[in-house]
Specification:
Length: 392
């Protein structure tokens, strides 16, 4: 491997109290010392110490605002976006998509590079992948005074924020990715599941601003699930989302790739949908072809997409019920074409419909974010920011 140089800047991680204040400033914006102390239950003396440490460390800045009628000006703290820069990379089966982000999660530049082709055994070579990621990081680092960390996300199962146990689109099993990347770049590295990374991004800069518990469903190349409970991101799912993806909907329905009749995946998973559409048409039909055919008035395409949207509606309702939150974020490349169908809303309304003696107890708050690869990479970068700052 060639050595790649990133201007790496080692920074001490924040203490628990410093982290709490920083997190509040990042999520909710500038605040007075008094508000922060009240909200985070810190004494004035503790709050002073924390503020001093954050000001000295360049993480926060202070503005003094005169208070009318009282002599003493109010101190307002705000986070300094440029205090940290982190590179985030999302790996697909064939490409590394990278972004450079500041501490507020603002993307300041992007880069991408092709991954090497899979070998004869179907796995993408690990050493070459490490090199490609390092090159993307080097390219992006040129746009910042210093880079403090690297976050990498992949589809599949990741252990200990380091080891890719199953790399779904890379053919990887038990690949220790963080150590060689860290050695190669000199940066602290965190590796994570790609949907978990989006959940982390949403926790600080999206749904988490108003809800401490929320769920995230991604629909694209596979179904993905992320969840946050009481402000804590669930890092490793017990089943990689299998139980929700294969929940039964219709025992007489079409079979999914592993043989369940009428499960969620049978209707909603892109591969299953394309397989059925192709079999019916007698030629290869992609998801995008189906969407285009629906636009052109093709009833069969509309039926397949409506069935997928209904499956999504059931999935949303079941996930919200199990998590006990009204807040569900839908994301991924295929989400717009499905969430825009009235069929999803109809199913959710029906699932919420109260019985004769009941009142309707909740309304779900569902947002749709059709994400591109840059947004996925931003999730990896935000995970990296949380890692270098010392967030749990
Ligand atoms: Zn199934």
């Amino acid at each position: 491997m060639t050595q790649t140089s990133v201007r790496a800047a080692a920074m001490p991680r924040l203490s628990e109290r410093e982290m709490a204040v920083t997190r509040h400033l990042l999520i909710h914006g500038p605040a007075t010392r008094g508000h922060l102390g009240d909200h985070l239950q810190l004494s004035m003396a503790s709050m002073s110490r924390v503020a001093r440490a954050l000001l000295d460390g360049g993480i926060a800045a202070e503005d003094l605002e005169p208070e009318p009628g009282i002599g003493r000006p109010r101190s307002i703290l705000s986070a300094v976006p440029s205090a940290r820069h982190v590179v985030g990379c999302k790996l697909t089966g064939d490409t590394v998509y990278g972004v450079l982000c500041d501490m507020m999660g603002n993307v300041t530049s992007t880069a991408q590079r092709a991954l090497p082709a899979p070998g004869r055994d179907g796995t993408v070579p690990v050493d070459d992948t490490v090199e490609v990621i390092a090159r993307v990081a080097t390219t992006l680092a040129a746009g910042a005074p210093a880079v403090h960390g690297l976050g990498v996300s992949v589809g599949g199962v990741v252990l200990d924020r380091s080891v890719v146990r199953e790399g779904t689109f890379l053919g990887w099993h038990d690949v220790a990715l963080a150590p060689p990347l860290s050695e190669h770049t000199g940066l602290p590295v965190v590796v994570t599941n790609d949907v978990t990374a989006l959940a982390r991004e949403q926790l600080w800069f999206g749904a988490g601003r108003t809800h401490s518990t929320f769920g995230l469903i991604t629909v694209g190349a596979g179904l993905g699930f992320g969840l946050v409970r009481e402000g804590v991101v669930v890092e490793e799912l017990i089943d990689n989302g299998h139980l929700l993806a294969h929940a039964p909907l219709n025992v007489q329905g079409p079979r999914c790739s592993i043989g369940h009749p009428g499960c969620v995946a049978a209707y909603l998973n892109r591969d299953d949908l394309e397989r059925r559409a192709s079999a019916a048409a007698g030629r290869r039909v992609t998801f995008d072809d189906l969407v285009a055919a629906r636009e052109a008035g093709d009833a069969a395409a509309a039926d397949l997409l409506d069935a997928a949207a209904r499956a999504l509606g059931h999935l949303v309702a079941t996930f919200a019920g199990a998590l006990q939150t009204p807040r569900i974020v839908l994301a991924g490349e295929d989400i717009n074409a499905l969430a825009s169908s009235a069929a999803m809303d109809e199913v959710i309304a029906d699932r919420l419909r109260p019985g004769a003696e009941e009142a309707q107890r909740c309304v779900l708050d569902i947002t749709t974010e059709p994400l591109g690869f840059t947004d996925w990479a931003r999730g990896a970068a935000v995970t990296g920011i949380q890692h270098v700052l010392g967030a749990a």
